[in-house]
Amino acid sequence: MRVWGGYSPTPTFRLALVDGRRAFFKGTYKESYEFPKIALLYEEKVYQELTPILGSFMPKFYATLRYEDWHCLLLEDVGPQSVPPWTTQKCCAITHSLADFHKLSQGQNPPAWLSRPTERLQHEDWQRTARESQDFQQIAALAGAESAQALEWFHYISPTIQQLMAQPILKKEPLAILHGDLRSDNLRLRGKQLYLFDWSAITVGRPEWDLVAFAQTVEIEGGPMPEQIISWYGEKAPLDSAAIDSSLAWWLTFFAEKAWRPEIPGLPRLRRFQRQQLGTIILWICRRWSLPEPDWARKFLV
Questions:
Q1: Quick one: which of 149, 172, 182, 250 is 20 to 30 A from 105 by CA?
Q2: Is 88-301 assigned to CATH 3.90.1200.10?
Q3: The whole model's pTM is what?
Q4: CATH classification code of 12-76
């Protein structure tokens, strides 16, 4: 059965095997875009080398297949999408499990081929985002008739974001192996067991960075607000308030850099989702930092 979901056009199927097992198939071929080809190679390496550490949160890795111009992974089928809808019970259970997932690798020595915070964090720069968006004008234009208010907000918040982006907190211990792309389409909850997949963005860093990215996607999909997810996570593992603030600044920069860009061929839904993420992060920042709630940011959520 063909499986639809996610934001890349990688062919994915749920299979019924002759021996009665069920499997999940994903692959790339000659005409696939370069990004999914590279991502699949990386994900194969993750399953082959990190199963001893993270295997309790991974589908079983059955095989890698190469046939003509196809490169495919065959994984345990962990079932259809669990969320949305995001019930309180499911969201709390998933958040608690994410805390357990992060704790698995803390204090261990991750493989050298996994990117570290010093490498990953430098990919985003608030001042570069300002320059490339014509001093935020391209981003503010997403607010339509209220673009002037949006532009004023981006100028007002700039000193705070630059200061937080310069803080070293996200490079300090405790570090863990992070999924890097935590969203509903990259996880399954079966009973009390959480499975994570699509590991192409895996990295090493502070759990707060992973958690902030996850929390805002839940709200976009009609689930609990990010503050509730932060609270649930804190029931299982400690969180650093400064690391949450720096993570918010980093993800704001990431989505501000992406949301106004032209559509990407082959990824027709990605920019809309990034605009929604930008709006959600802006509203979360305003609540957290006691700033007036900007009505114009809600236009990004449509």
A1: 250
A2: yes
A3: 0.95
A4: 3.30.200
